[in-house]
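Question:
Write out your own:
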Amino acid sequence: MQAMTALRQGLTTGDEQAGFRRGVVGWILMVVSGLSALNSTYVFLGTLKTGVIGWLMMNTCAPSIALFVAGFLLGSPVVMVAASVLMMRYGTGGLFVFDWRGYNLYAQAGHVLMTLAVIYVLVESVKHGRWRALTLGAALGVAILVPLTILQTAWFNAHPGMLEMLFSGTYPMQ
């Protein structure tokens, strides 16, 4: 019960978060990343017609960015740190596993933006001594990431060839 109370308090603005400001860099990252997520969502749901489950499994970047945007708009460093855990895995990690040509150039631009957002959140958190937010946010991010990774692995195992198509950028565009 104490853990839930601490999590609820961590999601709100406490004394440690009192100085949270939405600076110009944050606004730019939030807007441009949000537009990138909307674009990729359109590609997967509208053009590729993957369905919501296929979109979530192949484009986890967009929900990760949505969590970052929500945390930024709510002024919650905890939520932004949780999103950073996901963006580090899917965005920064994507820089190393996705091809750098074709349709994947759009994805890689989004991955660069996600990496910049992670750096922004980390710098702002450390600069303002938000150690509690870093700890709670990291725990929340891992609590989301672990089961999501297990689900993704099972989904990709059930859909052979999808991972290769995704990483190579050879989408069957219509």
User: Anything to note?
Assistant: Residues 60 and 160 are 18 Å apart (CA to CA).
